[in-house]
């Protein structure tokens, strides 16, 4: 098959692209950086350099593809960008590019919360889902992972300076966490065999509370405290470091939603979601390695 993917050589793509290429598929990787050209070619894929804001470029890159893999990407949250508006713009671009190119199979990286108007910033992913679902005679499957383990690296500085994790979510609330390795497994399967119609697939690597995370860190030599802060304090701190007001407020709302885990994950738990292999204890080892090297 001819396959075109967004996301350059990011943490997800780099895990499944070798398998697609080994299967003999003709793979084009879209990247915004010329610096990635050599690495993409070294994998055995064809680079296409351009912007995901350029509909004509996307349509040309998609042309002749049996399947395309899409994601909302390239957003620097702390640059003052309004993620809501960017998500709307990219969603319409992707829809237009798929229409122009005639692609009939789409795999879209979305998120848990895309179907929940109360999920704050995560609900911004519904723009892409709705835009792509409106395409007639196009098979579309949305990958909906939970929160990335890598988000926990945001606690690195406060752990080093205060031995404390600050979070607006209660320490005993279970949260879903995911590794790009497990997302890549699902992406590979869905790109290889895209299901007919419109559908979604949730992904969880592991479930863990704040206490579980503290215990996993302790097992790797990092003793830490957990201090709950208000969502209002979170939003104000984000604005101070450059986040757009709409984006900061939407992150605050996401955390409000996560505090009610039963409601937040209700649609996920009602499905046959993919349970991955990378557990919180596995990520704690990775986190501890980075922590020790940075102290």
Salient structural properties:
295 residues, alpha/beta, Rossmann fold, 13 strands
What does this structure look like?
With 295 residues, the protein is an alpha/beta fold. It has a domain at 2-147 and 177-204: Rossmann fold (3-Layer(aba) Sandwich), CATH 3.40.50. The protein is 44% helix and 19% strand. It contains 13 helices and 13 strands. It has helices spanning 13-22, 37-43, 55-62, 83-101, 126-133, 156-162, 180-192, 210-218, 231-240, 245-259, 261-264, 266-269, 280-294; strands at residues 2-5, 26-31, 46-49, 67-71, 105-109, 139-145, 147-148, 164-167, 175-178, 198-204, 206-208, 225-228, 274-275. The strands form 3 sheets. The protein has an 8-stranded parallel sheet, with helices on both faces. It has a 3-stranded mixed sheet with strand order 7-9-11. β2, α2 (37-43) and β3 (46-49) form a beta-alpha-beta unit. The radius of gyration is 19 Å and the shape is globular. The model has no long low-confidence stretch (mean pLDDT 95). This is NAD(P)H-binding protein. It comes from Paenibacillus polymyxa. Residues 2-267 form the NmrA-like domain.
């Amino acid at each position: 098959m001819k396959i075109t993917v967004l996301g350059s050589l990011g943490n997800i793509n780099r895990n499944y692209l070798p398998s697609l290429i080994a299967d003999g598929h003709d793979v084009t990787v879209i990247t915004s950086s010329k610096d990635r050209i050599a690495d993409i070619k070294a994998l055995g894929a064809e680079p296409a350099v351009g912007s995901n804001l350029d509909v004509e470029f996307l349509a040309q890159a998609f042309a002749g593809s049996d399947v395309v893999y899409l994601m909302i990407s390239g957003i620097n949250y702390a640059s003052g960008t309004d993620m809501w508006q960017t998500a709307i713009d990219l969603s319409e671009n992707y829809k237009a590019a798929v229409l122009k190119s005639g692609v009939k199979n789409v795999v879209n990286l979305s998120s848990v919360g895309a179907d929940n108007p109360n999920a704050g910033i995560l609900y911004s992913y519904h723009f892409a889902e709705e835009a792509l679902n409106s395409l007639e005679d196009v098979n579309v499957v949305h990958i909906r992972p939970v929160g990335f383990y890598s988000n926990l690296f945001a606690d690195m500085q406060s752990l080093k300076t205060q031995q404390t994790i600050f979070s607006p979510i209660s320490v005993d609330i279970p949260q879903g966490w995911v590794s790009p390795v497990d997302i890549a497994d699902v992406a590979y399967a869905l790109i290889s065999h895209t299901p007919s119609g419109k559908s979604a697939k949730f992904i969880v690597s592991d479930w863990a509370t704040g206490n579980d995370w503290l215990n996993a860190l302790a097992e790797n030599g990092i003793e830490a405290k957990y201090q709950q802060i208000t969502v209002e304090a979170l939003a104000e701190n984000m604005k101070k470091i450059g986040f757009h007001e709409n984006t900061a407020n939407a992150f605050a709302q996401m955390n409000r939603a996560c505090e009610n885990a039963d409601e937040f994950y209700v649609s996920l738990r009602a499905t046959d979601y993919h349970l991955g292999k990378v557990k919180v204890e596995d990520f704690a080892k990775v986190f501890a390695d980075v922590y020790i090297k940075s102290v």
